[in-house]
Amino acid sequence: MQSLGWRRTLLICTSSRIPLCRVIARRSHSQRDGLPLPPAIPTLQNASQSEEAREWIEKFKAREIPKSAVELTYSRSSGPGGQNVNKVNTKATLRCPLHASWIPEWARDYLKKTPSYVSSSQSILITSTVHRSQSQNVQECLAKLHALVMSAASAGLVNEPTEEQKERVRSLQKAEKARRRLEKDKRKQVKRDRSGGGEWD
User: Fold this and answer.
1) pLDDT, greater one: 22 or 143
2) What is the pLDDT of residue 182?
3) Which residues are CB-contacts of 94 (< 8 A; sequence separation ≥ 6)?
4) Distance separating alpha carbons of residues 105 and 99, to the nearest angstrom
């Protein structure tokens, strides 16, 4: 049965439906990492798209980024560590491609402006040396990445206006309409005065 499923996938991929192949690969990668797949929204332009983004943010908030979703390297640390300093590879360095399937498209421009972004490799680079153990520094890097993605995903949210804001807009529109009507009436009166200005008793 499993081989039959792969044959079906292969038939789909070889029938010139390449976008579907990419979706399948993207989804399976995200599921393997255990992270929710964000909606395909390039930029947040309205409240409806922001609502979809909020749903993904809530799901992502409850998850931890697994080590399998990033690239981790280790080196000797010059930070706190007692006798382990310069002897054990306790420093953790995390690299994550900006175009990872689980990073929302609408968050990428924000991420590009952060100090963690490396333009040459189009990736996010985070390091940690604050802990004495390698595993703790790894968790520190993953937590920093999680917080960074959360901030980036939330930065462009478009909020639905409150009733108070809607009422204020209606009041401003009403006042603008009244002002235009008054100006129109004034122009009409000026024309009337000019048309009758040449007559003398």
Assistant:
1) 143
2) 85
3) 70, 71, 72, 124, 125, 126, 127, 128, 138, 141, 142, 144, 145
4) 8
Tokens 């922001």 sit on residue: 50
Please state, rounded to an integer, the average pLDDT across all residues of the chain. Answer: 79
* More confident: 86 or 189: 189
Q: For residue range 91-100, list pLDDT tens digits in order.
A: 999 999 999 9
Give the separation between CA 135 and CA 123, rounded to whole angstroms: 22
Give the list of residues 6+ apart from residue 145 with CB closer than 8 angstroms, or none.
65, 70, 94, 96, 124, 126
Closest by CA to 55, choosing from 28, 43, 37, is 37
Three-state SS annotation for the chain: CHHHHHHHHHHHHCCCCHHHHHHHHHHHHHHHHCCCCCCCCCCCCCHHHHHHHHHHHHHHHCCCCCHHHCEEEEECCCCCCHHHCCCCCCEEEEEEECCCCCCCHHHHHHHHCCCCEECCCCEEEEEECCCCCHHHHHHHHHHHHHHHHHHHHHHCCCCCCCHHHHHHHHHHHHHHHHHHHHHHHHHHHHHHHHHCCCCCC
